[in-house]
């Protein structure tokens, strides 16, 4: 066998392992379109959104125009993109801010996916096209004040009353809740866990916003309160009859987080790399110091490992061989790596690392939520442990 005489391509610090070459032309086009959107529509404003604890409602319409809302679903106005393309979009969105990626993830992978996978044809026709365009916003009500990692212990209940259902309970930490036009609410019934579509304005239903957050500030986080909320049977998701319904939605959202965390890590690494080459101390850029180069090298390793892991899981998902346990490994590894990168980048930037003129402290704070939601790091470690040993450690 003759060795190749072709010279390797130039090394690019922002794509150290040449991962870009592993993507198809269509995947690169989608990635580039989302990257350009984030650069023009998010990055110039997100520091102010974070400081003011707000995110503009019209951003959902612009994301709809970009075709990223429910982009991995088929029909009903959805783009029907591959899982890998959706993952690349999540990476670029979270490189802008976790709150923006959360808006897209909750809309597409939780609320829209729940309707698409478990809803009736009438429910799909009513909601999915409008949600894909960003005209209607959805939220996903599973977590409760006393029921997070153990959703089976939820206290929200729905009881049959003739041809109607009456819902009572409370949900907590619900992204998009206050601005949502429809809430997908999961409740215990006499026949197992069921999902219900609760439109905004339904009597007895309210969604007060949660304030004083120091993380995910460019995102709406809410409580859902259900006080004798009366719904017709047509509001029930007919195909969901157990916890399998909401858990399938969570797995979709966790997959997007695997990619998104890699995006947050990349943004922090790039900020530190650029800063280190222009910050002068002792008459030379700090990038010339061994300790700073070691930090940059360690960040580059984590960013590239995270991106390769996300891409591999994307290929598995497109091939139909991705398991929930794979997603648990991806979320555990990539979010922890992103936290390490953010904290290291903060040190490279010194005092400038705590200001919103740079993205690092914003990502660092956001990732403290990302490591907890959609399954805590501890829970995902136990999922992996169960897969490795065959021994269930949850109970």
Automatic annotation (TrEMBL):
GO terms for molecular function: fatty-acyl-CoA binding; flavin adenine dinucleotide binding; glutaryl-CoA dehydrogenase activity. Residues 139-229 form the Acyl-CoA oxidase/dehydrogenase middle domain. Its EC number is 1.3.8.6. Pathway: Amino-acid metabolism; lysine degradation; Amino-acid metabolism; tryptophan metabolism. The keyword Oxidoreductase applies. GO terms for biological process: fatty acid beta-oxidation using acyl-CoA dehydrogenase; fatty-acyl-CoA biosynthetic process. It is an enzyme of class 1 (oxidoreductase). Coiled coil: none annotated. Residues 24-135 form the Acyl-CoA dehydrogenase/oxidase N-terminal domain. InterPro entries: Acyl-CoA_DH_CS (IPR006089), Acyl-CoA_Oxase/DH_mid-dom (IPR006091), Acyl-CoA_Oxase/DH_mid-dom_sf (IPR046373), AcylCo_DH-like_C (IPR036250), AcylCo_DH/oxidase_C (IPR009075), AcylCoA_DH/ox_N (IPR013786), AcylCoA_DH/ox_N_sf (IPR037069), AcylCoA_DH/oxidase_NM_dom_sf (IPR009100). Keywords: FAD, Flavoprotein, Oxidoreductase, Transit peptide. Residues 248-388 form the Acyl-CoA dehydrogenase/oxidase C-terminal domain. The keyword Transmembrane does not apply. Pfam families: Acyl-CoA_dh_1, Acyl-CoA_dh_M, Acyl-CoA_dh_N. It comes from the Bacteria. SUPFAM superfamilies: Acyl-CoA dehydrogenase C-terminal domain-like, Acyl-CoA dehydrogenase NM domain-like. Its cofactor is FAD. It catalyses: glutaryl-CoA + oxidized [electron-transfer flavoprotein] + 2 H(+) = (2E)-butenoyl-CoA + reduced [electron-transfer flavoprotein] + CO2. PANTHER family: GLUTARYL-COA DEHYDROGENASE, MITOCHONDRIAL. Belongs to the acyl-CoA dehydrogenase family. This is glutaryl-CoA dehydrogenase (ETF). It comes from Conexibacter woesei (strain DSM 14684 / CCUG 47730 / CIP 108061 / JCM 11494 / NBRC 100937 / ID131577).
